[in-house]
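Subject: Sanity check before I submit

Could someone independently write out the structure tokens for this chain? I want to compare against mine line by line before I put it in a report. The sequence has 343 residues.
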Amino acid sequence: MSFTGLRSVVLCLGLLTLPALAADKSVTPYLRPAETKPAPTLMQMLVAALKPKSVHAAEPAHKPRGRHAAAAAKKPKTPPATAATEPPPAQPTTAGATEPPAQSTTVGAAVTPPGPLSETELAAKGLELFNDTSLSGGNKASCATCHFSTGHTNNKTYVGLDVVADGDPNGRNTPTLWGVGERAVFGWAGQAATLEDSIRGIIVNRMKGAEPSQQTLAALVAYVRTLNYPANWQVKEDGTPRPDASAAVKRGYDLYIGDGGCGTCHQLPSFDKKSKDDIGTGGKFKVPTLHAVASTAPYFHDGRTASLRDAVKLMWDVYAKKMDSRLPTEDEVDDLTAYVGAL
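---
Independent answer below. Compare away.
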């Protein structure tokens, strides 16, 4: 700028400030002094006007945005949030590492182990096992093969599981299981002191089955203990004849406990004995019960006698020889057979 131009600018500025100075003097007495900065003097304004400006000051306040600047100013887009139900990505596992198996969770109340079975339930389970052929080797037979489901005898003689002729010296006649819970010892040889031992021996030795569990034995014992004798209308539970029993039964009872000597071994009221006796049939054998004997033919351990009358007569002869006593008449054999057959 030339000096002449500068002088013109100064002159103009001076003329512009004159009205402001006059206004300032007119209102000064009525205005409270301002706490702001004092207005610049004329000289300060002239100096500021004459001061050269820097290049950066001349740049416009708002820079025009270029193509790249606008792109840089844009915010990057945020990817959409993953749904809450989406499973997290599987983490890589080390080769050979195994993940722990999933644990099953029981919903609701804890499972309570079943309580012990009642006697009725245990006996029902025993009836199922009584008819179960899997107790034997090769599923060949069940307890009911020889005793039916009622526990009574099938009236056959066996060697193992093979049926043999009655009277075979190696054979064993099938006894009834009615009233088995009342007996003192078990088996024709009297080898089993308890019912559990007897059943186990039959399963393992005769049926060639696997060793039964205690639960199996308990169930079978519970069932066979329910096998009672049929009701008897002629003889009381203690073995004495009822008042309305037949005359032959009453006479036979007197012979049973008297001259016939039957009560010596077949003791009332169980009609058996714990010990073994030798009656000349091939060794010592357990004295069998006479309850329901009329339906258990053949008789003796090997089934050698087919009829009950022949068995009664044979036993009286054995007793007479042993005790050196008299032999019975035919009528006495009939009466004694009537009483024994009514048991």
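---
OP: Matches mine. For the report I'm noting this point. Residues 9-36, 54-109 have pLDDT under 50 and may be disordered.
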